[in-house]
Amino acid sequence: MKGYGYFGIMFFCLSVFMGSTGAQLQMECIFHDCFVRGCDASVLLNTTSSSNQTEKVAAPNLTLRGFDFIEKIKSLLEAACPAVVSCADIVALVARDAVVATGGPFWRVPTGRRDGTVSRSSEALSKYPTSNKQLHQSADTFC
After folding, report:
1. b/e per residue, 1-35, with b = 16+ CB within 10 A?
2. What global pTM score does this model have?
3. Which of 11, 67, 97, 126 has the fewest CB atoms within 10 Å of its CB?
């Protein structure tokens, strides 16, 4: 987490505080975020008009939780160093640290992502693998 200084420790401590349930929530969040437009935190965007429903309100994402946790971290970071750490990096780092905190492996997370500004419910509906697809169709979703 080059350039983030002590915030690397903060992410880890917050992830430990979250526990295993929080780890699951953050892994689901990054999975759903990365599937649609890449890992850009677009799943965090709220719907602002009825003509543009965001990923957050798409049927596959209605069970996602933990958005408030990400928002709390973003608030802490903004207070300490405004406009330095993106929500996209926060989602990725918290997911990784939550896995590590619950006994999973560590991996490097490149930072410097930019937050997405586009989020469409229709894209979330069309991009996720579903249980009614053939195996080869679901496998193609991951490629």
Report:
1. beebeebbebbbebbeebeeebbbbbbbbbebbbb
2. 0.79
3. 126
Identify whether 93 is part of a domain. yes
Q: Is 97 annotated for ligand binding?
A: no
Annotated ligand binding at 36? The verdict is yes
Q: What does the pLDDT look like over 18-54, one tens digit per residue? A: 665 677 788 888 888 988 999 999 999 999 988 889 9
- The answer to whether residue 136 is catalytic is no
CB 90 within 8 A of CB 69: no
Mean pLDDT in the chain?
Answer: 81
* CATH code for position 63: 1.10.520.10
- Is 140 annotated for ligand binding? no
Catalytic residue among 18, 30, 32, 121: 32
